[in-house]
């Protein structure tokens, strides 16, 4: 079983600095290449996002996206960001943004661990495209909307973490 040991709790300043750096890089890439930018992360509850098991899930997300882009014949370039508190890859993809978003939602909904993936498509202004109506993200542990479970704390942090570790263990 992979370790669950927490390395550190990032400060609010670290989290905000990483988000700002991501937003700036997204705008730079989208403007420079005149193409949408895909953001690849994983949905990990709690403050520690950079664990060995989270990295395995993140790599599975990157691999799934790159495989889809290759299969669809989409020209792309992946850039792994050096974020302090989470794993993040940005991908410049030469395809219409709504089409890319549709493909990414298909990955999230069809892949066994797709609920764990956080796949966004950003336009030149840095604003992500939202999911289409009827494609709400589902909870890891039940079929309820994820935002409702998170808001009501329907599941314990420990249960969510154990689920994620179990998925990473089989990768």
UniProtKB/TrEMBL annotation:
Organism (species): Fusibacter paucivorans
> What is the gene called?
citX
EC primary class: transferase
The answer to whether keyword Methyltransferase applies is no
MF terms from GO for this chain are:
holo-citrate lyase synthase activity; lyase activity
Keyword Nucleotidyltransferase included in the entry's annotation:
yes
Describe the reaction catalysed, as an equation.
Answer: apo-[citrate lyase ACP] + 2'-(5''-triphospho-alpha-D-ribosyl)-3'-dephospho-CoA = holo-[citrate lyase ACP] + diphosphate
Which domain of life does this protein belong to?
Answer: Bacteria
What is this protein identified as? Answer: citrate lyase holo-[acyl-carrier protein] synthase
Instruction: Look up the EC number in the record and give it.
Output: 2.7.7.61
Keywords tagged on the record: Lyase, Nucleotidyltransferase, Transferase
InterPro entries registered for this protein in UniProt? CitX
